[in-house]
Design goal:
mainly alpha, Four Helix Bundle (Hemerythrin (Met), subunit A), 5 helices, 162 residues
Length: 162
Amino acid sequence: MEIEKYQFLKEGMFHCLEPLTKKDEGIWGVMKPQEMVEHLADFFDVSSAKIHFDLAIPKEHLPRYKEFLYSDKPFRENTKAPTGVLGEKPMPLRIADLEAAKKKLERSVQDFFNYFNEHTGAQTLHPVFGMLTVHEWVLLHYKHVTHHLRQFKLWPATGYNE
């Protein structure tokens, strides 16, 4: 099962994102398609230590969050990051257009896998889940990506078989 999650992050999610256009609307939340794709890229950059956040929750909450990470439970619709991690509104767009943002996401995913291949046994900090191994990041990225794919009616994906 975990191998499928790695493969999904490396390839499958990009098949799911192919039909996404700038005109699409989410069924919850305030993000537009490009904002969502840039947001995903940002959190892959967090996992490969290119973007740094401080821990935003009390340390005593980490075991409960890690328990969620290992569960089969998805993120709920309209899940919001704790105060201090992200604002109420999406970050301003930084990339020229949606297709360029998808390419940036591909690079960020590749950089994530490269980082952990080059830094065997490394852990990097997520602002809510604490220090995570590559395996834990894969679990989290899988939950996070499928959450946003559901937001834009791209998951469960037809034509993509995990």
